[in-house]
């Protein structure tokens, strides 16, 4: 092989082996398990024909392998870059058909290289996980690369968006890289995440369990909160990731993506009748979001976890916003540990990437109870106060109905640094709800009424007095704690004005190495 033509032919043959033949073999194995190949996943994620592969000829160095062990091109991971909606994105996808997609020295070098590239050019990284974990043949070297990966994830945190799509096994220490990234998506049925698998659990603890129960997509979306979206299949997972990227800047210094400022949902009048007259009656806060955000459209994060709180990305006038809202349909919108941690993390993400925060409050307070106190609702509930206080992005709050006690304070109150606070006439801003307040304040009067059989009427009168004097938006409005009481149907227009006003907000923070938030 001496001439140019032969060398070009050799390149063609090597490329065929590295990409086409490898993918053909992978397709047979992966499709049989209901999974796509690494390259098929990347092709779905990126804009058509935009993928540029890096290191396709990389192969392990063979020093710790048995004699004759193959050295397949790629070493179990496909890496490179391309675009999503025309904007650059770096990607790595583990190839389960090569050494079980396990992490070794060369595979690790490839992943770190593409992450370093993403940091240099300031673009998001999407990692597609489908792996047996640390490459057994390479021992401590593979562990070193997991640690290196965790360090890269941590340094990149808050600089570039990081997404993990779990599309197969992700076990042992391998789970910690996705856990550090900003968003994790799991595919129903094929994705599993656990620190120790069912076999180890059984031998160490005697508990019998299966992979789905221990770390399936449903469990991780609903109970542990490790996953931010439960995807029905791989196409759904990738679609969610593409939609999410459409809301985000490429990095923490980039401007937000700009879309056509069209799309008023056009049904604002419905907001004027949305809050029920009966204070205990629930309504769906999602409807408020639909009626306020561009085209009635938003992308919810962790919809199955901490369900009394909604966290979502949407747009107003074509510009991305992060929305935090209580959900009266679930536990009347009370804030429990999961809801607090979910929202705190979301607020911090939005702040890191300069997305303005919109808060819709309808909250009776933190969830009372033995279980919540013992699990640390004080420390873990504090995270949300901390996150709001720390956030320097534009913060606009709308009190829709209840804003009682700690719930008032934490849900984007003026006192935590919100810039514009609005309230609907239906807002009830008070220390507690009418029924509890009346019982506490009028104990003696109610006891006397009970003795002469008039308790019900007396209680009703006192509740009505409380609701009309103390549980209104006007006490807060008198003090400037809310800037304006507005018609619900004017909400979108008011938010649009507030966000334009705050577009160039600047807020200095005292110099410090980093904060010491209650983790
Ligand atoms: C090398 C591996 C491998 C690994 C799988 N393979 N895992 N090779 N290192 N970690 C290879 C298998 O030998 C097999 O090769 C091929 O990949 C497919 O594996 P199967 O077992 O046939 O697949 P399946 O039946 O689908 O089972 C998938 C699995 C199982 C549940 C993931 O492979 C498994 O238990 N693997 C080991 C998981 C594990 O304990 N990893 C270490 C975790 S600790 P052939 O040639 O037969 O096709 C860890 C520490 C990280 O990761 C520390 C970070 C700080």
TrEMBL record:
One Pfam family this sequence matches: Carboxyl_trans
Coiled coil regions in record: none
Domain CoA carboxyltransferase C-terminal: 270-513
Entry-linked SUPFAM superfamilies: ClpP/crotonase
Domain of life: Bacteria
EC number: 6.4.1.3
Cytoplasm recorded as keyword: no
GO MF annotation terms: acetyl-CoA carboxylase activity; propionyl-CoA carboxylase activity
Protein's recorded name: Propionyl-CoA carboxylase beta chain
Enzymatic class: ligase
InterPro entries named in the record: AccD/PCCB (IPR051047), AcCoA_carboxyl_beta (IPR034733), Acetyl_CoA_COase_Trfase_b_su (IPR000438), ClpP/crotonase-like_dom_sf (IPR029045), COA_CT_C (IPR011763), COA_CT_N (IPR011762)
Keywords for this protein: Ligase
Family membership: Belongs to the AccD/PCCB family.
Every CoA carboxyltransferase N-terminal domain range: 1-260
GO BP terms: carbon fixation; fatty acid biosynthetic process
Gene Ontology CC: acetyl-CoA carboxylase complex
